[in-house]
Specification:
Elements (H helix, E strand, L loop, with lengths): L3 H18 L6 H17 L8 E2 L4 H7 L3 E5 L5 H10 L4 E4 L6 H10 L1 E2 L2 E2 L1 E2 L6 H6 L3 E5 L9 E4 L2 E4 L3 H8 L5 E7 L2 E7 L4 H15 L12 E2 L3 H4 L9
Parallel strand pairs: 1-11, 2-7, 2-10, 3-6, 3-7
Antiparallel strand pairs: 4-5, 8-9, 9-12, 10-11
Length: 242
């Protein structure tokens, strides 16, 4: 079955975390069915007409996001719908996206990621990233997939490599705000997290969502985890929360 080996590996590496938390890991078929449902909604069910309300506890964060910052999101639920709705709600969204193959699929996906004539999710040129942030953009990225750097952290009890772009931004623009969020059914939930040690806060937030409904996180199909005994000793760069 599709990515069954990756799924099984991720279950094995995160099993101690779930046992410690007294929670059950998801079944492959449950995660796969949920993912197909969200894909169907985005592709065929015209999600652009779906009304999304900002949760009352998230309104203040939403207003702050109008001034730009870093927005960390995840493969949790319908993340494609999340991006479109953030743009639709008037936030200055500029999301990082990898070019897809074949070319016609990438072109179709860019069309889906376009609001008011602007494609809000494209490949980001890192040399222009600081200029983008200085313009007041809300730079969004899927932060639950492997990065190509020495930036490391702990997630679900295992070592993970993290995307270095937020670190790069904060190194040069330390006053940049960091946010995270997700859509649950028809409600948008947002949270501001400390820029200091932000990946630990982000991972803690995502872990709470996964524990609530592990079958809604599609990162199970991504080869991100790398077992490392140093996690428990605290040698990883992004240390765990106390």
């Amino acid at each position: 079955m599709w990515k069954q080996s990756v799924f099984s590996k991720n279950l094995r590496l995160t099993k101690p975390f779930f046992e410690k938390m007294g929670a059950k890991q998801p079944k492959y078929i449950a995660v796969f069915k949920n993912m197909l449902g969200d894909v169907f909604e985005f592709v065929f069910a015209n999600p652009f007409k779906k009304k999304i309300a900002v949760d009352a506890s998230s309104v203040a964060v939403f207003e702050e996001m109008r001034h730009g910052g870093i927005f960390l999101t995840a493969h949790y639920g319908n993340h494609e719908l999340l991006g479109y709705k953030l743009a639709e709600l008037g936030l200055p969204l500029n999301a990082a996206a990898q070019e897809q193959k074949p070319a016609f699929f990438d072109k179709w996906l860019q069309k889906k990621r376009t609001f008011n004539g602007k494609c809000f999710a494209q490949k980001v040129n890192s040399s222009h990233l600081l200029e983008l942030m200085d313009s007041g953009a809300l730079f969004a990225m899927l932060a639950d997939q492997r990065g190509r750097s020495d930036c490391k952290g702990e997630f679900l009890g295992a070592e993970v490599h993290c995307n270095p772009l937020p670190n790069f931004i904060l190194e040069h623009r330390p006053n940049t705000s960091v946010f995270c969020g997700h859509i649950r059914q028809t409600t948008l939930f947002l949270k501001k997290i400390p820029s200091q040690n932000f990946y630990a806060h982000y991972h803690s937030w995502l872990e709470s969502l996964i524990l609530e409904n592990p079958a809604k996180w599609y990162g199970w199909f991504h080869n991100r985890f790398e077992f490392c005994s140093c996690v428990s000793s605290g040698c990883c760069r992004q240390k765990t929360l106390e």
